[in-house]
Write a structure and sequence with these properties.
Layout (H helix, E strand, L loop, with lengths): L1 E4 L2 E4 L4 E2 L4 E4 L17 E5 L16 E10 L15 E5 L27 E6 L13 E8 L1 H7 L4 H4 L5 E5 L15 E6 L4 E10 L13 E6 L4 H10 L4 E3 L7 E4 L11 E3 L3 E6 L3 E3 L5 E3 L9 E3 L11 E5 L16 E5 L4 E3 L5 E7 L2 E2 L6 E3 L56 E7 L19 E9 L5 E2 L3 H6 L5 H6 L9 E6 L7 H8 L2 H18 L3 E4 L9 H16 L4 E6 L10 H7 L2 E4 L26 H4 L4 H11 L6 E6 L1 E6 L20 E3 H7 L4 E5 L4 E5 L3 E4 L3 H13 L4 E5 L15 H9 L11
Helix pairs in contact: 13-14
Protein name: Chitinase
Subcellular location: Secreted
Keywords: Disulfide bond, Glycoprotein, Secreted, Signal
């Protein structure tokens, strides 16, 4: 991996190719001292090289160099100050590597199910410092054995077990044999050959070792490697998000064509990247069969067709008209085409050609069935005479018009979309208080889908995440999940919840791993051309998938970003107001350290969600609830002003944010810690020097940890549970009800739930949606309409 230093690229770290465009390396190779990702323009990666130098002419035609489109650092990485926890990053290349015999990705799939044996030998390759204390000119490979934790601890310096985290690391090396990794090898992959399938799997990344970052490396000791299997879920998600392959451009549609931006000369049969966007259009007199003209190449195996338009209608003023396409979706009446329908109600004094006030006409092959939709004066209507039935053989020929007949009926046909059954009136939202439910889309990998939720308990739903491209456009985060899973994609599955709650508004959250590199937002905010590209792509996605707006998650703007941030918000809001779209933002709870102008933000956006959770986590030195309503007396002054909802709300209000724009966050998950002393189990109890056990959703807590001792902390208004070794701070029904009461009593805008999939949506512990119900109850919302399901 090459980094630009003094105007030229130098080989500073190693990395491992795990797909055609994803390189995995150590976070400390691509961040500053505080764990912030450096700009992608600082790096390039190369594969198929033998010699150290960038562009070395001795490397043959196999060497391939790639620029970087994105630097994705694990969100838990904080550098040396946090003992190199989560020392892991992924580099996403702008172009795919071309695979050949000397360029192949290491195996990653299923690595979390492949277990290493003590002293099993693996391999590390790199150009680190040699015995001469200079970088190696040629690629070198060493073979070293894996060491189990106890073995490794005995062989490393005594202070290391206390000083560094072994939980997310694996250990390997040879003692007293002059074979070890050294400076320049950081990020290189430790691979092991799996005997079952004869393939090489990446198990670790060079992270830390005695004297690793000095010019005099210790060649007689072990090293610690970031465990790939420990972070399997994170890596797998990011690889899925950034999965791209080659794609064959499809034929042009009959009576239409497709085009590609900057795709001059591209024609059907040419090869492009699978995420290339095709824009379909039709000739005059035709219209696309889809609501959106935009398809990516990977999805163009089922492209839209061009349908012939039906004739324009001429109905008298006052007519009520509903037009639908072949998929039973509401459309503009001038867009009615083959397979569509027009249902119209004539004004007073008029009837349809059937003599009824209301009639439906269907469009087939460019024409309406029987006659075009029309209304005639009731006084001029003449019913069509009923023809006499002719007997088939003999019998009377007397007209049967005087015989009472029953109007002909037909069996109802199954509608193309599910019928929405109207429920009794819902009071949620009628008071103006917002219940904003956030859906963490990656939970679909654990089979948690939008259909599992009760959308009538929410006023708004925020879908996480969609990212940013370098040119300012929105970037679909996980194409498989967002667009294709279950033949529909999570975007449509989420916005389809509006069929179960007609008042629900669904927003896309711009941020997450697709925008964690702050330079993406920063560059967007100060470049009007990029903002224009952002607005154009946002409009396409909002309209294509029936979203109602965006929530911007620029979480850490610098103080000198303040003016540009306001400019960005003003420009977006001005454009969104033309279409009635919503613009909200999610912000850091600590306002004084970031580039926020609370008064101006309050003037522009629809609301501001403050991320009032994750106050305690892997960086903490003692136990604490990460989503407390009020402070604990055991906290210091600084913590009391920042680590609870009440203090954060007051700080933002004092800074100028209006009450009717302020939304606080409530977590439907807890954070767990490893207790250092089983006799100290309360709030602010000492913990082991290891990261937290991470996010634990409520439905897991209520079942898996039901036998723990549960305690209610009346100071923070939250519970915690513990046993001899483990401590969890979380929200239960009582805690969320009190947060709901707080929102109502303080007359704030509402509350944001992160995330809705953490609730007991399937009733594994009893009542379904128990947290969301109690939150609404605390806000004063009636739930009598909701049956106990």
């Amino acid at each position: 991996m090459f980094k630009k230093l003094a105007g030229k690229y130098e080989n500073v770290c190693g990395g491992t190719l795990v797909s055609r465009r994803v390189v995995i390396t150590a976070a400390h190779c691509v961040t500053d001292n505080y764990g912030n990702a450096l700009g992608r323009e600082n790096f390039q990666v190369a594969a198929g090289k033998l010699f150290n130098a960038f562009g070395d002419p001795r490397d043959n035609e196999h060497a391939q160099y790639r620029k970087i489109s994105e630097v994705v650092v694990h969100p838990g990485y904080r550098g040396v100050s946090q003992r190199y926890v989560a020392d892991l990053a992924l580099l996403i290349t702008q172009e795919l590597f071309k695979l050949e015999p000397v360029i192949q990705p290491a195996c990653f799939d299923n690595v979390n199910n492949i277990y290493l044996k003590n002293y099993q030998v693996g391999e590390v390759a790199g150009w680190g410092l040699t015995e001469e204390e200079k970088p190696s000119e040629r690629l070198r490979v060493i073979k070293i054995p894996y060491k189990e934790g106890a073995t490794c601890a005995r062989e490393l310096p005594e202070s290391w077990e206390e000083q560094y985290n072994f939980l997310d690391k694996i250990c390997a090396g040879r003692v007293d044999q002059q074979i070890a990794v050294c400076q320049g090898d950081s990020g290189s992959g430790l691979v092991f050959k799996n005997r079952e399938d004869n393939r090489y799997y990446i198990q670790g990344l060079v992270s830390i070792a005695p004297n690793l970052y000095t010019s005099k490396c210790n060649y007689q000791t072990n090293a610690l490697y970031t465990s790939v299997s420990f972070y399997y879920t994170f890596i797998n998600r990011e690889m899925t998000i950034n999965y791209l392959e080659d794609c064959l451009l499809p034929p042009h549609p009959r009576n239409g064509k497709w085009s590609i931006e900057d795709g001059v000369g591209k024609k059907p049969g040419d090869i492009v990247l699978s995420n290339t966007i095709l824009t379909f259009s039709c000739n005059r007199g035709y219209i696309l069969s889809s609501m959106s003209p935009h398809y990516d190449c990977a999805n163009s195996y089922n492209p839209p067709t061009c349908l012939i338009l039906c004739p324009k209608m001429s109905l008298p003023s006052g007519s009520q008209i509903i037009c639908k396409n072949a998929k039973n979706q509401h459309i503009q009446c001038e867009d009615v085409a083959d397979g569509g329908s027009v249902t119209f109600t004539c004004p007073n004094g008029f009837v349809s050609d059937r003599g009824t006030p209301t009639s439906t006409k269907y469009c087939r092959n460019g024409a309406f069935s029987n006659t075009a939709p029309s209304c005639i004066l009731k006084a001029l209507f003449k019913p069509t005479p009923v023809k006499n039935k002719r007997p088939s053989s003999g019998g009377s020929t007397k007209p049967e018009s005087n015989i009472p007949t029953k109007p002909a009926t037909s069996k109802p046909t199954k509608p193309s979309v599910p019928i929405t059954i109207t429920e009794p009136g819902v009071e949620i939202g009628s008071d103006g208080l917002k219940v904003i439910c956030t859906y963490a889309s990656w939970m679909a990998y654990q089979e948690v889908y939008p259909e599992n939720f009760e959308p009538r308990l929410c006023t708004h739903l925020v879908y996480q995440f969609i990212g940013l491209k370098e040119n300012g456009e929105l970037r679909v985060g996980d194409e498989w999940l967002d667009l294709y899973v279950m033949e529909q994609g999570l975007y449509r599955m989420t916005t389809d919840l509006k069929t179960r709650n007609k008042d629900l508004k669904v927003l896309l959250n711009v941020g997450g791993s697709g925008a964690t590199n702050e330079t993406l937002f920063r560059d967007l905010s100060k470049d009007d051309d990029k903002i224009k590209a952002f607005l154009s792509s946002a409009a396409k996605i909002i309209q294509m998938y029936n979203f109602d707006g965006l929530d911007l998650f620029w979480f850490s703007p610098a103080k000198d970003d303040k003016e540009n941030f306001i400019h960005l918000l003003e420009t977006i809001k001005r454009d969104f107001d033309k279409n009635g779209w919503i613009l909200s933002i999610t912000v850091h709870p600590v306002i004084e350290q970031h580039g926020y102008d609370a008064k101006e933000i309050s003037r522009i956006v629809d609301w501001v969600t403050i991320k009032t959770y994750d106050f305690y986590g892997s960086w903490s030195l003692y136990t604490g609830n990460h989503n407390s309503l009020y402070p604990s007396s055991k906290e210091n002054g600084w913590e009391k002003q920042r680590y609870n909802l009440d203090a954060v709300a007051k700080t933002w209000l004092k800074a100028g944010l209006s009450k009717n724009k302020l939304v606080l966050g409530v977590a439907f998950s807890g954070v767990g810690f490893s207790l250092k002393d089983k006799t100290e189990t309360g709030v602010h109890a000492p913990i082991n020097k290891a990261p937290s056990f991470g996010e634990i959703r409520y439905y897991q807590i209520c079942k898996k940890y039901a036998d723990f001792t549960k305690v209610w902390d009346d100071e923070t208004k939250t519970p915690y549970s513990y046993n001899d070794t483990f401590w969890i701070g979380f929200n239960d029904p009582q805690a969320v009800r009190l947060k709901g009461e707080y929102i109502k009593n303080e007359q704030l805008a509402g509350i944001n739930v992160f995330s809705i999939d953490g609730d007991d949506n399937k009733g594994v512990c009893g009542e379904k949606y128990v947290l969301l119900k109690n939150l609404n109850s605390g806000m004063g919302h009636s739930l009598t309409w909701l049956k106990d399901n």
